[in-house]
Design a protein that fits this description.
This protein folds into two domains: about 160 residues, 3-Layer(aba) Sandwich (Rossmann fold), CATH 3.40.50.1240; about 30 residues, no CATH class. It has about 210 residues and is of the alpha/beta class. It is about 35% helix and about 15% strand. α2 runs parallel beside α3, α4 packs across α5 and α6 packs across α7. α3 links the parallel β2 and β3. The protein starts with 6 loop residues before the first strand and ends in a 5-residue tail after the last strand. The longest helix has 18 residues. The protein has a six-stranded mixed sheet, with helices on both faces.
């Protein structure tokens, strides 16, 4: 029998009030709102057709609560891993984009241009990308041939995918952000010379997609 190939499913958490209000969340620990909880339920119902073998969540409650809904429906235990925390946005967390632009115009311009942002505690893009990618590679090594689901955050997932497909987190803009409770699926490349890299099979699948 041909061995089963490993799969990595990256899920963004359900909606929060900060999402609805257009505020930058970062590592502020914001809970799901009513809409976000309903999104998690729809996603859990959809993945029962092909449930994950492993579920790991960011420790932040919006990701953990989303993962726990999926875990209850699929009877898969949920663990947490800080490798999948959202990108830290330092002094900007809790603010809207226009507030940031007005108060830190130069830093905001650097952020929008995917350059390093100095002086306000924003975690650098390559640092986040490698943190998430390293965590994903480790999980796949620990669970060969399994479907590993990671429930995390928009910026962290986008940057992690960028690193996993071998692109530059500072320069590459080919990965759009995930919507709430949407998911992306990747698998490791098997060819020699591509160790640690992955293929993006699907991106931004909605919560109701089975």
């Amino acid at each position: 029998m041909k061995p089963q190939r490993s799969r990595l499913v990256l899920v963004r958490h359900g909606q929060t009030d900060y999402n609805r209000e257009g505020r930058l969340q970062g590592q502020v620990d914001i809970p799901l709102n009513t809409t976000g909880a309903a999104q998690a339920q729809r996603l859990a119902a959809a993945v029962t057709a092909d449930p994950p073998d492993v579920i790991v969540a960011s420790p932040l409650q919006r990701a953990l609560a989303t993962a726990q809904v999926i875990g209850r429906v699929t009877s898969v235990p949920v663990t947490t891993d800080p490798a999948f925390l959202e990108r830290s946005f330092g002094d900007w967390e809790g603010l809207r984009g226009e507030e940031i632009r007005q108060r830190w115009p130069e830093e905001h311009a650097a952020w929008r241009a995917h350059r390093t942002v100095e002086g306000v505690g924003v975690e650098d893009r390559p640092e986040v990308a490698e943190r998430v990618a390293a965590g994903a590679r480790r999980l796949l090594q620990e669970h060969p041939g399994k479907m590993v689901m990671v429930v995390a955050h928009g910026a962290a997932i986008t940057l992690g995918i960028t690193a996993l497909i071998g692109e530059d987190p500072n320069g590459f803009r080919g990965i759009a952000g995930l919507e709430n409770c949407h998911r992306s699926v990747l698998e490791p490349l098997q060819a020699a010379g591509y160790e640690g890299l992955m293929r993006l099979l699907s991106h931004n699948l909605p919560p109701s997609f089975a």
